[in-house]
Amino acid sequence: MAHQSEQVPFDGHPRLWWGFMGVALLLFCTTVAGAAPAHDDIAQATVITALPFTDGPLTTTGATTAADDPYCAGNGHTVWYVVTPATHLSMTVNTFGSDYDTTVSVYSGAPGALTLLACNDDFQDLQSQVVFEAYAGTTYYIMVGSYGGTPGGSLLFQAAGVELGPPPANDDIVHATVITALPFTDGPLTTTGATTAPDDPDCAGHGHTVWYTVTPATDLSMAIKTLGSDYNTTVSVYTGAPGALTRLACNDDFQSAQSRVVFSAVAGTTYYIMVGSSYSNPGGSLLFQAMEAEPPPPPPPNDDIADATVITALPFTDGPLTTATATTTADDPDCAGHGHTVWYVVTPTADRFMIVHTFGSKYDTTVSVYTGAPGALTPLACNDNFQSAQSRVVFQARAGTTYYIMVGSSYGGPGGRLLFWAAEPAPLEASVFGLIPQTAVCKNANTGQQVTLSSPAPTWDCQAAGIAVYAGNTVTIQVLGTVEEGATDVGGAVIGMAPLSGNCTNVSTGQQVQFQDMLGAREASCVAAGLVVQPGETVQMHVRGVAE
To answer: How many helices (H) and strands (E) does the chain have?
Structure first.
């Protein structure tokens, strides 16, 4: 058996060979991954002692992720910084100049029990930036990580701060500025140093809040506005007590970035007014104004179903009337929303089709129809945006049945100028002569609604048969029948429709002719148009026109 010689480098010691190879491999891997930075863990966070502050470039490829590292668009290859400012600051932290996809997040609290204040990924290309309000004596932890599962790289970390100055005297609700008389103006005053208390309510954000309070001696309508301020404000009004407030009004961006609210103030009731910066925007120069406003008009008389306007005869028109101050009760039904509702009621004395619409109104309306009784309504029809932002329904009303009609604003939209119309559709009749009808079909081409009559009388009403038609709709009527014994002519006529085209077909022979005279007379003879018929043969007539 051949003997394989073993290569024995390094003075005949094979284990020494493998030892050198292991060290070389370890050194190679360490070089590729890089050592973990000194501030790899939050417990060793680099302390920011002064601003502005820069750290790096430094390599984060060897940075690790601890089990309790929080998540901000990923948490790979994290490094930590910590700052405890001596003054009230607006701080900016960024990774501009880094060569990998970074994230930046800011936390208060303590390691293992952090509260997220800000998180950003890709503020500028793949680099990140956050701006946050830092209070004197509060410790903030800043984590820089790699996005998702991407690797680390060369990090350039920068932090800067701008002093916000002391908070205004009315920074907290317990020190709210008292409005003693109207009109009232405060400012310009600087709110950049204003803070946010833990119990400050939210109205499109609640940054840099300041407070006012008023207890009017008489009932009045009050307007509060921040027009003339130079930052993005919000205004909100509350009743109750500090820590237990109930919001009455909230506005952001009434006019550009400034705000305005109007509310009804009751004599002897205390109201708290909060002005804040919208979402995470900074404070600025505030001009606060309070004044007595023109009281809003009362709701329309038919604001509630119990006071529904009675439709006594058709056609019926109501308006224009303003629904801006119409209210919504707890039992108002929903039809694409139910804001600013007004009500109508009708009890017809005979069976009929009814059309109800809001054409000509100046806001986004809805229309719905109900049977039953207030508080126990059954919906029959609901429409939103039949024609642009206005609505229309058609329903079959039975004699002696009461119908409630609700007009509202679509979803959360405001009310406005309402024109309400109710009418009975004009008859849409068709008739034939010389023909025993077998079937008749009426179709509204605009809505797709179609009704079929079996063995109809020689004269029938499409609307009475169940098709809803409104003036301007395109309608087709088709009838199939048998030529009567002794008939020398076959034809038809229409009422309530202006014909556009028509034809007659002898189904038995296949001959077809076009109407020539129906366009003017609304009556046509198939035989006069050239159709040859014999008693007992099957004939089909078809006419298309516009409802009047």
So the answer is: 4, 37
